[in-house]
Amino acid sequence: MLHCPIARRHSAPSAAHRKPTRLEVPTPYGHVPMHYPAMQAFSTLPNLRELSVDVRFEDMDSHVPCRGGFAALESFCLTRGSLPDIEEALQMVASSHLRRLKITILMSVDAQRLTTFLDGIRHAAIGITSLWLHLDCLVYTTTPLGPAELPEPVFSLHDLQELICRFKASSLLVTLSDRDISPFAIAWPDLRVLKLHEGGYSRSDAGSSVSALFDLALRCPRLESILFRHLHA
Predict the structure, then answer these.
(1) pLDDT of res. 30
(2) Per-residue pLDDT tens for 109-149?
């Protein structure tokens, strides 16, 4: 486990440790939480292009916020974490090369808070081509919010080619209508992969129609793969 004292001793990586281009902290043997000082240390690696990490920043309040790190990062996978920790991890990244972003949120979150977070992504990762969002938690809201409303803040990411979302059963509306799908083609004309794993149950006549998906395929000529859970003729 990466404890704070170790990270402090290695806060300035030597030349021998400045060469890694890929770092995967969640090992096959289990998740190793990355604490804030360790994350600060790794943010100074000038050649790091791929990072997969489980963030846990309980100790963050005692440290000066880190900004402008991970200058070469192209792929960032936040495998597990609470929304505040994930937000802070993204704010540490200053790379203009970031293209792939994968996020798993574990702790329950308010739907409006989640949309605010997604709005921040379009500023922190403006050039991304792949966004993978896994909500392995309860998304609660007093006003029903459909899955199609969640991606709205990132409609300005016009380079997006891959969008994969997994929604756990919650108070969200869990089916996408034809009307919901239409803006996707306008926002992301270069889409190649669109997968929406919608949690919960629905009527057999609810969801998107085959004709709507056909229209999406026509307007996104590079589309290779579509996956919706709820579909009707």
Answers:
(1) 58
(2) 887 788 888 888 877 788 899 999 888 777 777 666 665 67
The mean pLDDT value for 80-102 works out to 89
As to burial, measured by CB atoms within 10 angstroms (0-12 exposed, 13-18 middle, 19+ buried), residue 118 is middle
Strands 50-55 and 100-105: unpaired
Angle at CA 197, nearest 5°, toward 146 and 178?
50
Token pair, residue 106, equals 């574990």
CA atoms of 165 and 150, how far apart (whole Å): 10
List, in order of start, the domains of the chain with CATH numbers: 4-232 (3.80.10)
Render pLDDT for 166-176 as a digit per residue (tens, 0 to 9): 876 554 545 67
Q: What is the pTM of this model?
A: 0.80
